[in-house]
Amino acid sequence: MGLVVQKYGGSSVADAEGIKRVAKRIVEAKRNGNDVVVVVSAMGDTTDELIDLAEQVSPMPAGRELDMLLTAGERISMALLAMAIKNLGHKAQSFTGSQAGVITDSVHNKARIIDVTPGRIRTALDEGNIAIVAGFQGVSQEGKNITTLGRGGSDTTAVALAAALDAEVCEIYTDVDGVFTADPRVVTKARKIDWISFEDMLELAASGSKVLLHRCVEYARRYNIPIHVRSSFSGLRGTWVSSEPIQQGDKKVEQAIISGVAHDTSEAKITVVGVPDKPGEAASIFRTIADAEINIDMVVQNVSAASTGLTDISFTLPKAEGRKAIDALKKNRSGIGFDSLRYDDQIGKISLIGAGMKTNPGVTADFFTALSDAGVNIELISTSEIRISVVTRKDDVPEAVRAVHTAFGLDSDSDEAVVYGGTGR
């Protein structure tokens, strides 16, 4: 008997019919001889609705109380799913994140998991139950306050439990049939990937692919937990994410030269104008940003003007953190010594990912040729061994993604990229 951890997203449990459909799939896994642990998200858009409600009551809701509010969504889902499973004649118990032993740090709204002690989950499994766990939440090690893990937190919960329970696989059920070579909502001829390495998936996730979140893949790589991304709306085989190629039939699935094209329109760009070009200035800027607990993505420094000895430094960051970053930099303006700040939230990022590009000459040239032919102007460039990213205008992103996808022969012969639930998450 194996142990399987399954995670179902909000679109999979959006209504009563969805919950009953998911319950049947879970029971089928149990009947196949597996112990089953299920991690569930809030129903549909419940989390967004709770955030809107909080903001109507308070423009800046307190982090602790917001976490108390938001965790209600997953508790509703877990209880309803346990009821549906019991209605099918199987034993089930539901657990909050804290009851499941998900221990986090004390950062509200975006806590990180520091330990998992799943004693109650093991006991429930030993008693023949299917264990249903509320995703996206835990309890702080210090203070024992309820915390939430931020966007994609349910995926991270599932992988963390799979590692703690030594599961054979973590199945992530969503509303698409797997990981595709591009966002199915933008490229209808995107192809499903049968297998992708942790490294390539990390780059796709960091570059804007929303099927799996970066933290989830990072956790899976650290503990070598295979992830199977599948749709809860179909019975099709999905995408395997693991350290080694999977066996399919009588041969192994090989790594493609190019894994896919990702895009992200949730970032903004800040340019710090007139920075003295001397040692320590860049450190002062990014220390200020770090102290504000803001993550940055791409960084570019212009050549210093010889006549003034000043330069400009541009960087991208989540759009939601833009105001906080501007305020932090203004507060430390005298310490840094810049002239002014420019803020731009109408940008988009396009990234080409593939481990094979480091050994294949011409990939970079083909990438920029495709963008040029599509009439796309480039503002920033960032590269790694397996990724090329550029920043351009937000309105140019869809056309740029389709152009690059076609240029690298990633288009499918048929429109197989179906988004069953409408969100692609």
Provide a descriptive summary of the structure in words:
Belongs to the aspartokinase family. Catalyzes the phosphorylation of the beta-carboxyl group of aspartic acid with ATP to yield 4-phospho-L-aspartate, which is involved in the branched biosynthetic pathway leading to the biosynthesis of amino acids lysine, threonine, isoleucine and methionine. Residues 270-346, 352-425 form the ACT domain. It catalyses: L-aspartate + ATP = 4-phospho-L-aspartate + ADP. GO terms for molecular function: aspartate kinase activity. By secondary structure, the protein is of the alpha/beta class. The protein has a domain at 3-252: 3-Layer(aba) Sandwich (Carbamate kinase). It is built from 12 helices and 22 strands. Strands 3-6-2-1-9-11-12-10 form an 8-stranded mixed beta sheet, with helices on both faces. Helix 1 packs across helix 3, helix 6 packs antiparallel against helix 7 and helix 11 (363-373) crosses helix 12 (397-407). The radius of gyration is 23 Å and the shape is globular. The two termini are 31 Å apart.
